[in-house]
Design brief:
Blueprint lengths: L14 E3 L5 E3 L7 E6 L6 H12 L1 H6 L2 E7 L3 H11 L4 E4 L4 H5 L3 E6 L2 E6 L2 E5 L5 E5 L7 H16 L1
Parallel strand pairs: 3-4, 4-5
Antiparallel strand pairs: 1-2, 3-8, 6-7, 8-9
Length: 161
C-alpha cells in the first residue's frame, strides 16, 4: 500500500539497523534536521553516484546541523561493503523488512522492459528538527539532486531566523 507523505505532516517513526553497528531512529534526530533518502540498491550506478554526492556535501549539511541517512533494503553487511568500496561518509540504514520503506510510501510498482515488479522509488524527505516533513522529492534524478536538497534546506533554515 503506497501512503503519500505530505509536506507539513509528521514523519513516520522508524528504527533501523545501521552500518557500524547499532541502530538509529527518528527520535535520534530530535533537535536536528534530517535528510532521509531512499534508494534502490547498493553498488548500482545511480545509487553509488547519489551516495558519493551526499558524502561530498557532508560538511555543508553539517554546517546546517543536518544529518544524512540513506535507506535501502540491502543488509547492513552490504551497506558496509558499499561504504568501504566507495569511501562513503553517509550513514546507511537497512530496511530488509520494508517497514520504513512502506511507511514512507516509496515501495512502488515499477515497469521496465515490459516487466512489472515492486521496488524502491528513489525519494528524499527533508525532515525538520521537530520531525515534520518540510520537503519531498519523488522519482529523483541523481544529477543536481544533492545541490537542490542543500538549496532548499538553506531556504527553509533562513526562514527560521
Amino acid at each position: 500500500m503506497n501512503k503519500a507523505i505530505a509536506e507539513g505532516s509528521n514523519a513516520p517513526q522508524f528504527t533501523l539497523p545501521i552500518n557500524g553497528g547499532g541502530e538509529t531512529s527518528l527520535a535520534d534526530y530530535a533537535g536536528r534536521w534530517l535528510v532521509l533518502y531512499f534508494y534502490p540498491k547498493d553498488d548500482t550506478s545511480g545509487c553509488t553516484k547519489e551516495a558519493i554526492e551526499f558524502t561530498n556535501h557532508l560538511e555543508a549539511f553539517a554546517a546546517l546541523d543536518t544529518h544524512i541517512l540513506g535507506v535501502s533494503k540491502d543488509s547492513v553487511k552490504k551497506h558496509e561493503n558499499f561504504i568501504e568500496k566507495h569511501g562513503l561518509g553517509v550513514t546507511l540504514g537497512s530496511d530488509e523488512g520494508l517497514d520504513t520503506i512502506q511507511a514512507f510510501g516509496v515501495w512502488v510498482e515499477k515497469k521496465m522492459y515490459g516487466r512489472v515488479s515492486m521496488g524502491i522509488e528513489r525519494s528524499t524527505f527533508l525532515i525538520d528538527d521537530k520531525g515534520v516533513v518540510q520537503h519531498v522529492w519523488r522519482k529523483v534524478r541523481v544529477p543536481g539532486h544533492v545541490e537542490a536538497v542543500l538549496e532548499r534546506l538553506n531556504e527553509l533554515k533562513a526562514g527560521e531566523s
